[in-house]
Amino acid sequence: MLGMSIREVSQALRDGRVSATELCRKCINQIQRTLYLNAFITITEETAMEQAQRTDNRLRTGKPLGYVPPFNATVVQKLLDQGAVLVGKTNLDEFAMGAGSTDGVFGPVRNPWSYTSLYREQSTEDPDSDWAITGGSSGGSAAAVASLSSFLALGSDTGGSTRNPGSLCGVVALKPTYSLLSRHGLIPLVNSMDVPGIMTRSVHDAATVLRILQGRDERDSTTVQAPSTPPSLPEHFDIRDICVGIPKEYHAPGLSKDTLAQWSRVADMFEQAGARVQEVSLPHTQHSIVCYHVLCCCEVASNMACFDGLEYGHCSKVDSSTDAMYATTRHEGFNSVVRRRILSGNYFLLKSNYKRYFVKAQQMRRLIAEDFKNVFRSGIDVLLTPTTLSDAARYSDFIQEDNQTRSAQEDVFTQPVNMAGLPAVTVPTALSHRGLPIGLQLIGQTLQDWKLLTVAQWMEQKVNFPIIHLHGESNERELNRSVSQKTRASNKYIHNLNKE
């Protein structure tokens, strides 16, 4: 049941073959069985069962739910209005700043594929130290979907934060066109690039969720009216009408042999099926990492300014002076990754540096966006690229490098899309020789998300990605016990906050 798609399980609910409460209980049980992944920081079991009961009542009576919480992000509210059940809040890097979901206050998230027999056969070290990362920053969401604990999850995508973990965890991750989904309720990282991302186990499911979430929102002035689309993705699609571009600049240093092999295999697959496949050039890609870093830090410095201990956020007990209180509050309230970006952003925005860094970065961003426009004007329908340089790194190896370096490396293929505001989706294609997922990215034209997903579904049907089978529960009980203690602590902390 948990391995079904959203479409299949929705039909089962309508047919009465399963109840919402029964399905919710299965998801909650699966979360409990996979606590060792550290994907969830809060399990809303009581709320989930209440919502599931209301869904059962609605299915029996045919009446809408009518449930309106005090405040929800628009994308969350739209899902609840359609009968979705919230099973929990997932783990992520602090303020979504990270590339591995290893820098959160609730500890790192573990990749579910680290607990498959195939990965374990390749591993020679202790299972408790040899697990792979999920990618970031929305790693908890990706792990929840990949481990069959939920049918869909949301994240935020500023430079690849849903596509990166989607690729490493073997799930579909969609970054819609900027402005197609409301950002109301999303804590801002980079206002001009942030997009709510969708994670599911199939492209069709991602399209289903997109239809629910897209469209104008009076609480977000950047949103636009969603274009008219068919009721669902076509089951059969003639790929011969499509031209696929292969950006030559994406043959980046550090690209693994496994990823390169899958990129070539899928490109050949398109060509053999009759699609036109041609090499294209995005000449300013080489400058995108530096450009993104400057713009990201500048907007982070601006957005994080409100967390000063007086208006919002943690407040230090140090009160010797206002400056001392501010300094101590922000040191205690932010980890080193967030503090580094704030400091860098303030430096770039100094009057003496503003034109040298921020203005030049904005100019380069325009050139990067023009590169994409020129390629699409030439007749290209979609671009096929890697999503990440390689499969998921081992946690013990990943933490050896600083976060800035890791983020620059892991987002090399994804962050140009955010700077251009384009839609992109990562689709799992195969397992590496280590037994870990490899995903490839398709990039589409502005507001042509449906066309992008149509091509992605065709690709998904051809690659035949395997279903996850988690390893036995040896070594998992101890891990669950440790993570469960953290979960209970976080639940108590959030409960006390709500009481206040």
Strand content: 5-15%
- Specify the helix fraction band: 40-55%
Largest sheet: 8 strands, mixed
Q: List the secondary-structure elements in sequence, H or E.
A: HHEHHEHHEHEEHEHEHHHHEHHHEEHH
- CATH architecture label of the largest domain: Alpha-Beta Complex
CATH level-4 homologous superfamily of the largest domain: Amidase signature (AS) domain
Number of helices: 18
Q: Going across the major beta sheet, what is the strand order?
A: 3-5-4-9-10-8-6-7
What does this 3D model show about the protein?
With 500 residues, this protein is an alpha+beta fold. The protein has two domains: 6-249 and 255-281 and 381-499, Amidase signature (AS) domain (Amidase signature (AS) enzymes, Alpha-Beta Complex), CATH 3.90.1300; 285-369, no CATH class. The chain contains 18 helices and ten strands. The protein has helices at residues 6-15, 20-33, 45-61, 74-81, 117-122, 139-146, 163-169, 203-213, 257-272, 288-303, 322-333, 336-348, 354-377, 395-398, 403-410, 415-420, 449-463, 476-499, and strands spanning 40-43, 88-90, 152-157, 172-175, 195-200, 243-247, 276-280, 382-386, 424-431, 437-443. It has an eight-stranded mixed beta sheet, with helices on both faces. Strands 1-2 form a two-stranded antiparallel sheet. A hairpin with a 5-residue loop joins strand 9 and strand 10 (437-443). Helix 10 crosses helix 12 and helix 10 (288-303) packs across helix 13. The longest helix is centred in the last third of the chain and has 24 residues, at 354-377. It starts with 5 loop residues before the first helix and ends with a helix.
